[in-house]
Amino acid sequence: MTRERTGPTLADATRGRVLFGGDYNPEQWPEEVWHEDVRLMQAAGVNSVTLGVFSWAKLEPSPGAREFGWLDRLMDLMHDHGIGVVLATPTSSPPPWMGRLHPETLPRDENGQIEWWGSRQHFSHSSDTYRRYAAAITEDLAARYGGHPALTMWHINNEYCTFDWGDEAATTFRDWLRRKYGTLDALNEAWGTAFWGQGHGDWDEVLPPRRAHYMKNPTHVLDFRRFTSDMLLECYVIERDIVRRHTPHIPVTTNFMPMWVGQDAWRWAEEEDVVSVDLYPDPRDPLGAQSGALVQDMTRSQAGGGPWMLMEQAAGPVNWRGVNHPKPRGLNRLWSLQAVARGADAVCYFQWRQSRQGAEKFHSGMIGHAGEQGRTYQEVKRLGAELAAIGGQVAGHRIGADVAVLFDWHSWWAGAQDGRLSSEVDHPQVVRSWHRALWEAHLTTAFAHPEHDLSPYRLVVVPQLYLLTDAAIENLLAYVRGGGTLVSGFLTGIADEDDRVRPGGMDARLRELFGIRTLHEWWPLDAGEDVECDGFRGTLWSEEIEAAADADEIVPYKGGELDGLPAVLRKGRAWYVSTLPEPAELRGLLTRAAADAGVRPVLEGLPDGVEAVRRGELLFVLNHGRDEVTVVVPGTHRDLLTGAEVTDSLILGRYGVAVLQS
Ligand code: GLA
After folding, report:
1. Could you tell me the distance, in angstroms and rounded to a whole number, from the CA of residue 349 to the centre of ligand 1?
2. What atom of ligand 1 comes closest to residue 54's alpha carbon?
3. How many angstroms is it from 625 CA to the middle of ligand 1?
4. Does an H or E element contain 72, and which?
5. DSSP code for 205
6. Is the pLDDT of residue 169 over 90?
7. In this structure, which residue's CA is closest to atom 4 in ligand 1?
8. Relative to the CA of 319, which ligand 1 atom is closest?
9. Which ranges of 547-582 would DSSP assign to H, the alpha helix?
10. Which residues pair with 554 in a beta bridge?
11. Does the annotation count 104 as an active-site position?
């Protein structure tokens, strides 16, 4: 499952720079504005725009018609001004005529309701008609613009995320299941349909998991998630193969939503030349920087540890939260440079010019309603100049990580079903808690799939892997046997790939690894409840575990039902944590495990809220706080942002950043 890179890469588009720009939707504006746009883009150092993301209705106003003139002029305009184009296939927003003439292209939700046109992403991944029209427009775009000198990259569709429970999806679901199971008996066995009398006697009885009276069969739902991810991927691959045939030298991407539940991004990333992501941390979130770092670490890991593309972020507020806060002065710069520190070679936005109409008119743009004099544009301009100044030293460089966090969509899907013991356990939140502990301990972290080669890492952390395949379990055992240190959180190794509980309630090989003799019961905690352990408090979950005689170390629960039983267990280099320790305690535990494994923080003694990342030869230091801080950076360096020489220590003001070269 490790990503092979043979085709073109992001480097073919960046050519030694950091790409800077964003989605450009000029069809919303009269052509005079386009000329104003390129002037302002050039002044801001914009070197890349993404065109055509939502242009299908304009490119194909009636079935089979083509209107390319406006796009010809834009491609030329960009090229004349030295701005590269990431050209999108417009297939995430089919024109209204498609739904009107071909209602079967519209997806249905689990209640059978149609998702009509009038927004976007209203296509059925399983519709032959949709796929045919999408392939045709992609073919014509690739033929027309494949040789255009402005073209730097292909952007397929946009944030693939549409589920479909409709009739055509039912047919492709059955086909997918036939390929997977071969026989109906095998399907019935894998899904455990003996429970509640769900055995299927004919393939036509197998449907998407539509609205039902009570809890649905969890393996059915799990397979439907797998199927949906695969069908959307099939749509991507069809278009990718078309553009690749025309332009084998131009890299291809599609933009992920961060840690989005519907898409097995490990699998998808294997099919991309460039891994890209859209990232919108909440400016008010006190842990916004960490949630950004998490997505950046994950995206870089999906890119095999190499450079990746920040396809979209917001220069100011978004408009889809309950309350949408602007970015305070300096925050856009700080979070953009954080992405570069963590491996981005492209810093782009949704969108260039803020819309005056439509659903996202209150979502910021690089140039906002306030125009050229507005703070947003002025800050964008400053950032563009800085990225141009450091781009040559940064682009292409990799980031080393001794620590990996394991993450798997299939495990998330299986663990998030109805009928589990606690709805308080939110998988992304659990992962965030563990990543936060590593981030606050200044340990540079990668993400990995549980079946990846783990030998590059000294420390592997499993926040929670409810479902583990046999191959993954063997991989973990081999990792520890080979000298690796493994720290695992609760509710790990419970189910096999069909979501069948493993004998003993937790895989026997893992129990042996961690020194667990018997797992008697799970004791989930209520919201706000905690459990006392020796030296810390646990939250969310606890477990009634009996340690094996060969466990090396036990930190017990104190008081209550679990008094004296192990909250934390260690056997050799394998740790098991049966609750979620409070943040400082989890950080302490991982700091200790890391130190035992020989992993050191990027810098010692960093003040709280200061992040440090090494990228190639460069050391990025970022102050996420509003107060001035002094940071010890032994040696003599040059700050590439200011040109100043820095010896042994550095002062960073509110949201300050230094990029040090030694
Ligand atoms: C997503 C989409 C964009 C835009 C932004 C802002 O990332 O890809 O088209 O809608 O969100 O909300």
Report:
1. 9
2. 9
3. 28
4. helix 69-80
5. G
6. yes
7. 350
8. 12
9. none
10. 569
11. no
- Segment 487-491 shows an average pLDDT of 98
- Indicate if ligand 1 lies below 6 Å from the C-beta of 158: yes
The mean pLDDT value for 362-379 works out to 98
Q: What is the pTM of this model?
A: 0.98
Please indicate whether residue 278, judged by its CB atom, sits closer than 6 Å to ligand 1: yes
In the chain, % of residues over pLDDT 90:
99
Domain covering 403-596 assigned CATH 3.40.50.880 in the classification: yes
Nearest CA to ligand 1 atom 6: 350
Domain with CATH 3.40.50.880 in the chain: 403-596
Q: How many residues does the chain have?
A: 662
What is the token pair recorded at 195? Answer: 């429970």
Residue with CA closest to ligand 1 atom 5: 350
Over residues 469-482, the pLDDT tens digits come to 999 999 999 999 99
pLDDT at 333 over 80: yes
Element (H, E) at 618: strand 618-623
Type and span of the H or E element at 301: helix 288-302
Handedness of CA 28, 260, 237, 10 (dihedral sign): positive
Catalytic residue at 312?
yes
CA of 350 to the centre of ligand 1 (A): 6
Q: Ligand 1 center to residue 348 CA distance, Å?
A: 12
What is the C-alpha to C-alpha distance for residues 395 and 376, in angstroms, rounded to an integer? 25
* pLDDT, average across residues 588-592: 97
Task: Kindly give the number of the ligand 1 atom that is closest to the alpha carbon of 53.
Answer: 9
Q: Amino acid identity, residue 479? A: Y
Residue 56 has a CB neighbour count (10 Å cut-off) of: 22
Across 560-571, b (16+ Cβ under 10 Å) vs e yields eebeebbbbbbb
**How many helices (H) and strands (E) would you count in the chain?**
18, 26
State both tokens at 66.
């083509």
pLDDT in tens, 553-562: 999 999 999 9
Q: Is the CB of 195 under 6 A from ligand 1?
A: no
On whether the CB atoms of residues 162 and 232 are closer than 8 A, the answer is: yes
235 CA from centroid of ligand 1 (Å) = 20
CA 46 – ligand 1 centroid, Å? 19
- Which residue type is seen at 528? G
- CA distances, 86 to each of 25, 229, 498 (Å): 12, 24, 40
Ligand 1 in contact with 159 (CB < 6 A)? Answer: yes
Task: Tell whether ligand 1 has an atom less than 6 A from the beta carbon of residue 312.
Answer: yes
Q: In what order do the strands lie in the sheet with 536-539?
A: 530-533, 536-539, 580-581
- Give pLDDT, residue 456: 98
Is residue 321 within 6 Å of ligand 1 at its C-beta? Answer: no
* CA-nearest residue, atom 12 of ligand 1: 318
Catalytic choice (159, 451, 497, 543): 159
Asked if residue 209 has pLDDT above 90, the reply is yes
Percent of the chain residues topping a pLDDT of 70: 99
The verdict on the CB of residue 277 being under 6 Å from ligand 1 is no
Of the candidates 115, 312, 386, 497, the residue annotated as catalytic is 312
- Residue-level pLDDT at 6: 81
- CATH for 610-661, options being 3.40.50.720, 2.60.40.1180, 3.40.50.300, 1.10.10.10: 2.60.40.1180
Ligand 1 centre from 615 Cα, in Å? 29
Quickly state the pLDDT bin for 4 (edges 50, 70, 90): low
Backbone angles phi, psi at 394, to 5 degrees: -100, -45
Sorting pLDDT into bands at 50, 70 and 90, what band is 330?
very high
Q: Would the CB of 363 count as within 6 Å of ligand 1?
A: yes
Enumerate the CATH 2.60.40.1180 domain ranges in the chain, comma separated. Answer: 610-661
